[in-house]
Every structure is written in structure tokens, then in C-alpha cells.
């Protein structure tokens, strides 16, 4: 059977931005459940959501003597709750405002005997509205939500390929529900003292030297989906360095400092989108590691050859 063409969905900021904002709040609800019901790990590794075959998922949440999974299904457009004792429940997405969905989630948790206290205030966004009173975010276009997820799973598959060969500490492919970005992060192995005065979530993230590749769905300053390759602390010489492919460029991002940027449209327009993004990931990590003086001989090796047996 011939392979299906590797098509990347067309994304238009003005068409998806309101749905993205509402979906962002849905993921904050799921993310807060993951945060509350998962033991803490360094650099907030216990908090992100993961990509799944139909959307975004918390993975196992430890409830009593069992497990609960929470999935945001972006094919059927529902939040799905499943306990290991066989009980399950769903909450439809896009029916009413965020406050309505949040209220139904709390009701489901009560019905499933899940005792958990959530802080309704969203994280890492300007002018947050408490989830239990948010009647502003009401737009949810199922088609746009699905297109965003279709883009995320294509990006995630490339991210995993880019991670092969790095033998130091690195994150799995992670959806960060605070900033609504899909990212992979590598660590040099050197600890850092975070700058003073940062919020707790930033302090916990920036206590180790790192480099990451992130996928964002745009903002009013940059109204399009884009990729960033950045490091903390930002190494000297980034502004004169070059990363591949040729469309990538150095940009000073407000609140983020210097970063290398490649637009999603440039990736999508490439003859081979996967190859273009993979080149950006590998080139970005290599450049940031070189500029930052990482021990690349220790941290990087050729991907192992694994024999496949039938």
C-alpha cells in the first residue's frame, strides 16, 4: 500500500485564535488536575500534558488506590474521565463558556469520588479570568481545534526524532498548558541560580542550564504559528549566529530575549516539511550548545542502531 502524503494543515491565525484561547483554558483545567494529582518533579516535569491518538492527555493520575486518566479528545470534542475501577464520564467541549465547562468538570470529579482542590486562576497569561467565572472565552470551533491538534501531532513526531542521539537529561514531548506551547528541552547538566524576583513557576523552571525548541500558535505581536529555539541563560553571540533552514532568523522577542524563529508556514511550504523542521531542531540545539559551551562529546552520540525482529 502506498504511503499517504505528509500533509500539514493550513493554519490561519484570525480563524483559530478565539478557539485557541478557549482551548487554552480547557487545557488549563486538565493541567491543573495533573499538577494536583502527580508527585512533583524537577523543572515542573510532572505538570505538562502529552499528545495522544485523539488529543491531549494527562497520563495516569493517582487517585486513592487506583488511577484516573483525563483526556481532551479533539476528534469527538469532549473531556473524558476514566478511573481504573471502570467508571468513566465525559464533558462536552464547546457547550457554553469556560465557566460552564469548568463547573461540569467539578461535578464529574465529585461523581467519580475524586477529592481534589483546584486553583481556578489560570497561569502564565495576561489578565487572567478565574475559570469558575470565565464567561469571556466561549468560542470553540471544532474544526479549528482539530486543525491545531493535527499540527501539534505532526510537530511532536518530528520532535521525538530530533531527540534521538542526545544522552543527557531531556524532556519528553510536552504540551505546557501555561504558555500553550509544545516543546522539547535539553539540559547541559549544569545547575543555575534563578534570577531573583521571578514567579515560582519560573524559578522552578530556570534552575538548570537548558535549550529548547517550542511551537507557539502566535500572538498579537506575531499573528502566526511559529517555532523558537532558545536557551537559558541566553548565550553570547546568538545575534550573529545562523541556524538552518535558511528561512530561520534571529529575533528579539518581547519578554523572551534573543531566539531563533522559524514560521510554521515556512515549514509547511517546504518540499519536505518534516525534514525542514528536523533541520531547525537539530541546527538550533547544536548552535545553542556550541555558543553555551556545552560538553557535546559527553552529551551527544549517534542514535543507537536497534535491530528489528519480526
Short description:
This protein has helices at 13-36, 98-111, 142-163, 200-205, 264-269, 273-292, 296-299; strands at residues 50-51, 55-57, 61-63, 66-73, 78-83, 88-92, 174-176, 181-191, 208-216, 226-232, 249-253, 257-263. The protein is an alpha+beta fold and 310 residues long. The protein folds into two domains: 13-133; 142-299, no CATH class.
Give start-end ranges of low-pLDDT stretches. none
- Give the end-to-end Cα distance, rounded to a whole number of Å: 19 Å
Strand and helix order: HEEEEEEHHEEHEEEEHHH
Total helical elements: 7
How many domains would you count in the coordinates?
2
Based on CA inertia axes, which overall geometry fits? globular
Q: Percent of residues in beta strands? A: 15-25%
Main structural class? alpha+beta
Structure description:
The protein has helices at 13-36, 98-111, 142-163, 200-205, 264-269, 273-292, 296-299; strands at 50-51, 55-57, 61-63, 66-73, 78-83, 88-92, 174-176, 181-191, 208-216, 226-232, 249-253, 257-263. The chain has 310 residues and is an alpha+beta fold. It has two domains: 13-133; 142-299, no CATH class. The strands form two sheets. Strands 1, 2, 3, 4, 5 and 6 form a six-stranded antiparallel beta sheet that branches. The two termini are 19 Å apart.
